[in-house]
Amino acid sequence: MERILRGPGPVLAVSLAIIATVLASQYIGGLEPCILCYYQRYPWYAIIALMVVALALPARGQAVLLGAAAVLFAVGTVIAVYHVGVEHKVFAGPAACGSATITGQSVDALRAQIVGKPVVRCDQPAWTLFGISMAGYNLVASAAMAALSLWLARTAWKGRP
Predict the structure, then answer these.
(1) How far apart, in whole angstroms, are the C-alpha atoms of residue 11 and residue 31?
(2) Half-sphere exposure of residue 47, counting CA atoms within 13 Å on the CB side?
């Protein structure tokens, strides 16, 4: 049990909690994510998969996967910095922000697609708490988890408890 708590266990638990929170905010709370919100989720999903595998590995294997998680968290931090920058009009958002892919083959199909799909802009946060958007909280969480993963990887590599 101690090996799990000092290895991939905390990273897995926090990652699952973060993903559960964003999915609940989307499917229960009704907050529609923009394309950058989806991009910010991908590192978390990959880390969950890595940590599940890491649970079955010896300490050195866990250290390698925790190091990989640290890199993925750093990537997530960069994506979050970009998203926060888009929200604060520091950066221009990608072309996919605020526009949907048009797939209709007729005028009626196009109209149904446009009317049936809300436009979710990347530069307008759907939710804030204390003036910080979900992208801002993701930035903090990703950076903190990168540091934790790196520390846990170092600890596991050296074989310390």
Answers:
(1) 26
(2) 32
Residues 61-88 have a mean pLDDT of: 95
Question: What letter would DSSP give residue 126?
Answer: S
What whole-number distance in Å separates Cα of residue 11 and Cα of residue 17? 10
Task: Using alpha carbons, list the distances in angstroms from residue 69 to 22, 31, 46, 155.
Answer: 19, 27, 8, 14
Percent of the chain as helix, strand, coil, to the nearest 5: 65, 0, 30
- Per-residue pLDDT tens for 14-62? 999 999 999 999 999 989 899 999 999 999 999 999 999 999 999 899 9
| Contact (CB, 8 A) for 65 and 90 | no
Q: What is the DSSP letter of 56?
A: T
What separation in angstroms does the CA of 85 have from each of 6, 123, 133? 35, 8, 11
Long-range contacts of 96-101 (CB under 8 A, 24+ apart): 96/35, 97/34, 97/35, 97/36, 97/121, 97/122, 97/123, 98/34, 98/122, 98/123
pTM: 0.82
Measured between alpha carbons, how far is 84 from 128 in angstroms, rounded to an integer? 12
Q: Find the radius of gyration of the CA atoms of the chain.
A: 19
